[in-house]
Amino acid sequence: MSQSTTVVAIPARLESKRLPRKLLADVGGKPLLQRVLERCLEAQQPAAVVLCTDSDELREQATQWPLARPVPVLMTPASCSSGSERLACALPELLELSGSSDPSSCWVLNVQGDQPFVDPTIIDAMAERCRTARTDVLTPVYRLPPEKIHNPAVVKCLLAQDGRCLTFSRSALPHVRDVSPDQWHAHAAYWGHVGIYGYRAEVLAQWNNLPASPLEAIEKLEQLKLLEADIAIGSFPVEADSLSVDTAEQLDEARQIAAQLR
């Protein structure tokens, strides 16, 4: 097998359902998506950072932002139902930009377009771990503080002892029987999902052929599609989450963080 390569791919849809046009919302004097691109470009390991979108407006804006280096923009169908499907549609171009023609040795790192403060060191750590991963999908997780355990906006990951992801849910997992929910944190470790995925490219190559996932439809979590198709997801721990902007309240929080960084 040839040496593993990685490429960061950022799926971006301008007209999101919960907060339309959030990717161009001002966060500390910069569009939110520009901040995501800047953070990703600080990572040292990936061969390229690529924007995947169905929006001509986003493509035009991204080419005008003063980035450290130009970011290629790949146009994808508006019909894509998830970020992973969007990357699957762009896979041939992503392989070319990674410098690899072998889907088994190329990893696509899916960074969400609404994470303006994503940590580039986590991206580099994922790129390193992909080279020795025992699964074809990898994701970072972090220990949840007690106040987030029962928040449905926070995605939880239930881990096996070897670090495999058993399932993901918006509900608290595990359920601690005969204990008040506000004390569950004292009886079990709860893990949150950072929202970044590393896919071996051959997994994305089969994405559109995977069976429909009832759990994905219920929870609105695309990674459940993989687990229902018996594709294992590995994990590795990181110190903290990266804010995802899905609501007006989270957009206000992002602006507050940006103000503190000035």
Can you give a write-up of this model?
It is globular, with a radius of gyration of 18 Å. Helix content is 29%, strand content 20%. The strands form two sheets. Strands 1, 4, 5, 6, 7, 8, 9, 10, 11 and 12 form a ten-stranded mixed β-sheet that branches. A two-stranded antiparallel ribbon has the order 2-3. The chain has helices spanning 32-41, 56-64, 83-89, 91-98, 120-130, 201-205, 214-219, 223-228, 248-261; strands spanning 5-12, 26-27, 30-31, 49-53, 73-75, 106-110, 137-143, 156-159, 165-169, 191-193, 197-200, 233-237. Helix 2 links the parallel strand 4 and strand 5. It is built from nine helices and twelve strands. The mean pLDDT is 94. By secondary structure, it is of the alpha/beta class.
Briefly summarize what is shown.
The protein has 262 residues and is of the alpha/beta class. 29% of the residues lie in helices and 20% in strands.
Keywords:
262 residues, two-stranded antiparallel sheet, 29% helix
What's the SSE pattern?
EEEHEHEHHEHEEEEEHHHEH
Mean residue pLDDT: 94
The main pleated sheet reads as: 10 strands, mixed
Total strands: the figure is 12
Quaternary structure classification: single chain
Radius of gyration: 18 Å
Could you say which overall geometry the principal axes of the C-alpha atoms support?
globular
As a percent range, the share of helical residues equals: 25-40%
User: What is the SS-derived class?
Assistant: alpha/beta
Roughly how many Å apart are the termini? Answer: 46 Å
Low-confidence stretches: none
**Share in β-strands:** 15-25%
Give the number of helices. 9
